[in-house]
Specification:
The protein is mostly helical. It has one domain. Helices cover 66% and strands 0% of the residues. The chain is built from four helices and no strands. The N and C termini lie far apart (49 Å).
Length: 90
Amino acid sequence: MERSSLFAEIEARGEAKGRRALLLRFLQRHFGEPVPEDVRQAVQAQDDHNILEAWFDRALTATTLDELRSTFGLTNGATEGGEQGSGSTP
């Protein structure tokens, strides 16, 4: 049984990696600019499939990156570099 639980864990990690990659690709395409580092780090740190799915669903209707920062548990303009606003320049 340990082997099947190990397989399930590896499979779950692979699925989460794919969901993160898809979300990041969507964000880049949707907002037409590189994904800010704070948003990228929040997405990369998330392993929960349900949360990643909810974030993706929220990204579908978001009109600004700041809306997503709130969803991702970040404050608006949370990056140390002072990246603020919805249309931060690349």
